[in-house]
Amino acid sequence: MPRVKGGPKHARKRKRVLRRASGFVGQPGHNYRSALEFTRRADRFSFEHRKVKKRLFRELWITRLSAALKLRGLTYSRFIPALIEAGIELNRKILSDLAVADTKAFDAIVEKARKFIKVQPKKAAA
Questions:
Q1: Residues 48 and 80 in one domain
Q2: Residues 73, 48: one domain?
C-alpha cells in the first residue's frame, strides 16, 4: 500500500491551526503538534467560559440590583417575588440598567412592587 502524506489538504489544515496559534509564545505558536494541542485546549476553555460568562453577568446584575434596593430600604429576596406578583416582567439585566441609568424609572418600579411585599412575622424567642 502506498504512503499518503496528505498534500495540499494537510498543508491547509496545518496552516489554519498555526494561524490560530500565532499568539502563543514559544513552541506552541510555531510547532504544529504543540499548536494543535494548545488550540484544542483553548477551544475547551472557550466553550466552558461562554457558559461561565452568562453566570457572571447574572451575578453582576443581581449585585447591582441588591445595592440599588438597599438604598431604597428593600432587599433583593423580597423585591423579586413582589415584582412577579405585581405583574412586572422585567429581567434582571434591564432592572440593573434602569437602577444605574434611569433612577426615576427604577424608583417608579420599586414603588409599584412595594405594595406587594409580604412582611414575614418574626419568630418567637425560644
A1: no
A2: no
- Cα–Cα distances (Å) from 100 to 53, 63, 90, 97, 121, in that order, read 21, 12, 15, 5, 32
Give yes or no for a contact between 102 and 68, defined as CB atoms under 8 angstroms apart.
Answer: no
pLDDT value of residue 48: 97
Give the residue-averaged pLDDT of 18-35.
95
Q: Which of 44, 48, 60 is nearest to 96 (CA)?
A: 60
Q: How many domains, in total, are found in the chain?
A: 2
Would you mind telling me the total number of residues written for the chain in this entry?
126
Q: What is the mean pLDDT of residues 51-67?
A: 97
Instruction: Say how far apart CA 79 and CA 109 lie, in whole Å.
Output: 10
Can you tell me the mean pLDDT for 51-60? 97
